[in-house]
Amino acid sequence: MVCDRCQVGRAQIQRLRRNSRLCKECFFVEFESEVHETIEEYGLFRRGERVAVAISGGKDSVVLAHVLKTLNERYAYGLELFLLAIDEGIHGYRDDSLAAVRRNSDELGLPLCVLSYADLYDGWTMDRVVSQIGRSNNCTFCGVFRRQALDRGARLGGADKLATGHNADDMAETVFLNLVRGDSARLRRSADVMTFEAEHEARQTTATVEWVPRVKPFLFMYEKEIVMYAYWKRLDYFATECVYAPQAFRAFARDLVKELEACAHARLWIRSGQRRSSENMQPMGRLWIPRPLHNDAHDAVTLAVKLCAKRVCC
Ligand SMILES: Nc1ncnc2c1ncn2[C@@H]1O[C@H](COP(=O)(O)OP(=O)(O)OP(=O)(O)O)[C@@H](O)[C@H]1O
Q1: ipTM of this model?
Q2: I want to staple 178 with a disulfide (CB 3.0 to 4.6 A). Which of 57, 183, 248, 298 is the partner?
């Protein structure tokens, strides 16, 4: 079967969003163009800005670093990029992924800044936190520490923006997590392409904190396609899951999204990546859903809440 775009190469991937069948080269072109469109449409960067790319060594952030460098050169954004990694102090996980981060920094020729929880939080590594509080809830601590660490790292590095590798799948999970937690403030901004996290926290604590806006250039990109990009480009990333992650509440949300996707209707609206797929879309909050399924989507949210409640209660 030939590629729908160039009509020459052998089709090797069926795009989830547009349903087109593409060869590898055309897939790279479309993927990169879609990230560029997001950057342009939402005005994520301004010429001359210094951008911290948050890199964990996982596939999303490694692909993000490569794509941002490529687009910065191709479209002459005029950005000054550097990599920012946080060492949470998780033995057998973060030490290995940081090795991948260092190799990417060398390959891309981008400077790297590494900050550790141990240095920032008076010797408190995640291994030490888990030894004190056990495994349940440790991801909540880690998430709060990491958000602050990234913010501090970005400010230390003089960044105007902090770019993270959050993708459409992460967004869908986050929407459900915030729904279940009843965190309406976070729910409202969980699908934003640009957020001001520290500003929100500062408002709640009345502390004066300088903040660095966060941007998510991959918010409309599917995880599966990010994996294919990394695989076909032979990028050097670390694939193992965090040793503490299986206990995470987020894992419930991930399973839930998969369960919902098993219903044909839900699959159509659950990810923000559908946003641009058709003119027949309409917004429900920040999610875009096909018009004929608007009512079904409300049913799906109800179903999601019931499923979550069931899981949380069990
Ligand atoms: N230790 C870290 N250092 C720097 N950035 C991080 C770190 N952990 C997460 N991030 C940023 O937050 C984003 C989402 O975090 P998540 O926990 O989903 O990442 P991951 O699964 O470790 O790896 P990735 O998302 O890169 O595949 C990452 O893409 C990255 O930009």
Answers
A1: 0.97
A2: 183
Task: Classify residue 149 by burial, with Cβ atoms within 10 Å: 0-12, 13-18, 19+.
Answer: buried
- Cα gap 225→284, rounded to integer Å: 25
Mind listing the domains of the chain with CATH numbers?
Answer: 26-246 (3.40.50.620)
**Cβ of 60 below 6 Å from ligand 1:** yes
Q: Per-residue pLDDT for 61 more than 70?
A: yes
| Phi, then psi, of 284 in degrees rounded to 5 | -125, 100
Q: What angle do CA 82, 79, 151 make, to 5 degrees?
A: 45
298: CA distance to ligand 1 center in Å?
Answer: 31
The CB of 66 under 6 Å from ligand 1? The reply is no
Residue 74 Cα to ligand 1 middle (Å): 25
Distance 254 CA to ligand 1 centre (A): 16
Cα 202 from Cα 210, distance rounded (Å): 9
101: Cβ below 6 Å to ligand 1?
no
Burial class of residue 292 in the structure, from the number of CB atoms within 10 Å of its CB (0-12 exposed, 13-18 middle, 19+ buried): exposed
Return the residue whose CA atom lies nearest to atom 29 of ligand 1. Answer: 165
For 139-175, the pLDDT digits (tens) are 888 888 999 999 999 999 999 999 999 988 888 888 7
Q: Whose CA is nearest to atom 16 of ligand 1?
A: 166
Please report which residue ranges of the chain form alpha helices under DSSP H: 24-41, 59-74, 94-108, 117-120, 126-133, 138-156, 168-181, 184-189, 197-205, 223-232, 250-261, 264-269, 294-313
CB 104 less than 6 A from any atom of ligand 1: no
pLDDT at 175: 78
pLDDT tens sequence across 277-312: 444 554 444 445 444 444 444 444 555 554 444 444
What number is the average pLDDT over the span 272-278?
A: 44
